[in-house]
Amino acid sequence: MLIHILVSWLLSALAIWLVAQIVSGIELRGFGDALIAAVVIAVVNAVIGPIIRFFTFPLVFLTFGLFLVVINAILLMLASMFTPGFKVRGFFPAVIGSIVLTILTWILRLVF
């Protein structure tokens, strides 16, 4: 169980590090900051994510789930505010970053 959590954490950090390499507007000082960012993103998604999703459910429903991309971008920007060494510079990089992060995390979890 603990090994699964550690592998999941490392894969999330790797995905965040790759996003910072791919998407301009998302900056990361190093892999250590990616490890911290992975924890902060998980906490923000677990604590604030459900609240935002609850209140924006009508928009999510009307857009057939596409508004979830906007919510994920907002949560990514919020997580960057609490993580030293991890910066998201603008809403558009946050949207692209959240999409790329979701895809990379999915691929890495399939492979490992």
Any overview of this molecule?
This protein is mostly helical and 112 residues long. The protein is built from 6 helices and 2 strands; from the N terminus they run αβααααβα. The chain has helices spanning 2-22, 31-47, 49-55, 57-62, 67-81, 91-111; strands at residues 26-28, 86-88. The chain has a two-stranded antiparallel ribbon. Helix 1 (2-22) packs across helix 2 (31-47), helix 1 packs across helix 6 (91-111) and helix 5 crosses helix 6. The mean pLDDT is 97.
Question: Which descriptors would you attach to this protein?
Answer:
single chain; about 110 residues; mainly alpha; two-stranded antiparallel sheet; globular
Which parts are unreliable, with pLDDT below 50 for 5 consecutive residues or more? none
Going by helix content, strand content and strand pairing, the class is mainly alpha
Placed side by side, the strands forming the largest sheet appear as 1-2
In round numbers, the mean pLDDT is: 97
| Ends distance | 15 Å
With helices defined by DSSP (H or I, 4 residues minimum), what is the helix count?
6
- The proportion of strand residues reads 5-15%
State the order of secondary-structure elements, H for helix, E for strand. HEHHHHEH
Gyration radius, rounded: 14 Å
What is the approximate shape? globular
Task: List how many beta strands DSSP finds.
Answer: 2
> Which percent range fits the helix content?
over 70%
Biggest sheet record: 2 strands, antiparallel
